[in-house]
Design a protein that fits this description.
Distance between the termini: 38 Å
CATH topology of the largest domain: TIM Barrel
Number of domains: 3
Structural class: alpha/beta
Number of strands: 15
CATH superfamily of the largest domain: Aldolase class I
Strand content: 15-25%
Strand order of the largest sheet: 1-2-3-4-5-6-7-8
Helix content: 40-55%
Oligomer: single chain
CATH architecture of the largest domain: Alpha-Beta Barrel
Bound molecules: 3-methyl-2-oxobutanoic acid, zinc ion
Radius of gyration: 24 Å
Number of helices: 16
Largest sheet: 8 strands, parallel, barrel
């Protein structure tokens, strides 16, 4: 009999803690809608006490999402729990997720609390949360480095106080699969009331073992996996949703378990996360990397042509990589575009469709075939990036072997049109110089990378930049058939994200 595994997605909370990966409320709502379509059981929408922006985003997600549970994170203080509840109370299925550290290292050096005090704080927090909702998760932060018997006592007390899920995090990614599986077995057999709750695990990837540890834990009795799309998250990231789900799916004999995930939504979700956060997926990343289904060696290609099963353990279609993709061109009409966008998960208003349609026509004039990835870029750039301080109106560059590279730029800055020009070492440098002058910003360019979204010389070039200004870091992304324009768009997107961060300060607790 196959056992149900609950997928708790924390892309919007732990994932957003990836350096530079801030998302605005519109982007978070879009992502939450996609996560619901993907079929995750729980969406951890944010940490409402961290900032007003987080609170606002969590409450909007809670109002929008109807099928998945919506969780809000809170420390054990009453103020944090009230704030989390304030944000999620309108959800169809709200969940309060409260946590406190249980390892001696954290107790001594961070919390400066004794073990009994930690148990009391956990119990009070769970009990108080239960006065607000009957769906309460308790997490023992740094659980994998905690004393086993103390961890079991905390879980027992939390369940006794009313926790319906207890979560065992490997907060610093220190665990080894065999050891983590044994710890889960220990908890299962030494927490007398564990049968009244679901045991969850939450792994980080500092040693590259997050997926292995999660699978070992599921094999040992855990029934909820906390994951993120593309494995994004604090430091080296969290367990990746797609890896766990596809391991269960591909090896049912080994894992007699099933998740409610619609696997064909994995690729669209991955693409959306990378587009919204600006964090690119490494080409060799399992399941969602550009090379995950590419066969380079002749022997492999020959085998796959004869029978895909020779070298492919999963079908690309299963994870949403369709081989027969609908291609739109400049003769495609508004109706075809609307229908296709709907299939991709974008239900646009008439006004939004009009905007996307005109951008689509512009692109179709430059590029023969417009594919899904191109449309996703148009929607992300045109619809999701709404509240923008800076907007590119016009860019003209002169460059070549005999001229000093020069860029003249027109931008909208807070609704006002401004124009200027600048020189640089190359056309991109000149464009960035002019943009910085016009916006009055002094961001340092920490990273710059270019790639092609699809094949062919007319493909959209996709540029990612990483910017730092006054200690704040933001990623920016831009796409265009012309890579200099794509670079300017990425730079401006990064500046907009920095502006957003300046006006939405995040007060992430030391405890996270
Ligand atoms: O890594 C961690 O311990 C966490 C907890 C808040 C669950 O993210
Ligand atoms: Zn975490």
């Amino acid at each position: 009999m196959s056992e149900r595994i609950y997928i708790f997605d924390t892309t919007l909370r732990d994932g957003e803690q990836s350096p530079g990966a801030s998302m605005n409320t519109g982007e978070k709502l879009r992502l939450a809608t996609q996560l619901e379509k993907l079929g995750v059981d729980i969406i951890e929408a944010g940490f409402p006490a961290a900032s007003e922006g987080d609170f606002e985003a969590v409450s909007q997600i809670a109002k929008r999402i109807r099928n998945a549970e919506v969780a809000g994170l809170a420390r054990t203080s009453k103020a944090d729990i009230d704030c989390a509840w304030g944000a999620i109370q309108h959800a169809a299925k709200p969940r309060i997720h409260t946590f406190i550290a249980t390892s001696d290292i954290h107790l001594t050096h961070k919390l400066r609390m004794g073990r009994e005090e930690v148990i009391a704080a956990a119990v009070d927090a769970v009990r108080y949360s239960r006065t607000l909702t009957d769906n309460v998760e308790f997490s023992a932060e740094d659980g994998s480095r905690s004393d086993r018997d103390f961890l079991c006592r905390v879980f027992e007390a939390a369940i006794e106080a009313g926790a319906t899920v207890v979560n065992l995090p490997d907060t610093v990614g220190y665990a080894i699969p065999e050891e983590f599986g044994q710890l889960v077995k220990y908890v299962m057999s030494h927490v007398p009331n564990i049968g009244k709750a679901i045991l969850s695990v939450h792994c980080h990837n500092d040693l590259g073992l997050a997926t292995s540890n999660t699978l070992a834990a599921l094999g040992a009795g855990a029934r909820q996996a906390e994951v993120t799309i593309n494995g994004i998250g604090e430091r080296a990231g969290n367990t990746s949703l797609e890896e766990v789900v596809m391991a269960l799916h591909t090896r049912p004999n080994f894992f007699p378990m099933n998740s409610g995930i619609r696997t064909e939504q994995i690729h669209p979700s991955s693409r959306l996360v990378s587009m919204i956060t600006g964090i690119m997926v490494q080409p060799n990343k399992a399941i969602v990397g550009a090379n995950a289904f590419a066969h380079e060696a002749g022997i492999h290609q020959d085998g796959v042509l004869k029978n895909p099963m020779t070298y492919e353990i999963m079908k690309p279609e299963t994870v949403g990589l369709s081989t027969s993709r609908l291609v739109l061109g400049k003769h495609s009409g508004r109706h075809a575009l609307r229908t296709h966008l709907k299939d991709l998960g974008y239900d646009l208003s008439d006004e939004e469709l009009q905007l996307v349609f005109s951008k689509f026509k512009e692109l179709a004039d430059k590029k023969k075939h417009v594919v899904d990835e191109d449309l996703e870029v148009i929607v992300t750039e045109g619809i999701l990036r709404t509240a923008e301080t800076f907007k590119l109106e016009y860019l003209h560059v002169t460059c070549g072997t005999t001229v000093l590279p020069m860029a003249s730029v027109q931008l909208t800055v807070n609704g006002r049109s401004v124009r200027g020009a600048g020189y640089g070492n190359g056309p991109i440098d000149a464009a960035f110089e002019s943009i910085a002058k016009l916006t009055g910003t002094e961001a340092e360019l920490l990273r710059f990378s270019v790639s092609a979204i699809t094949g062919g010389t007319d493909a959209l070039g996709e540029v990612t930049v990483r910017l730092r200004e006054n200690g704040l870091i933001a990623l920016g992304k831009g796409a265009d058939p012309d890579i200099i324009t794509a670079s300017a768009k990425a730079y401006i997107n990064g500046l907009n994200r920095l502006e957003y961060l300046k006006h939405h300060p995040v007060n992430r607790s030391e405890a996270l």
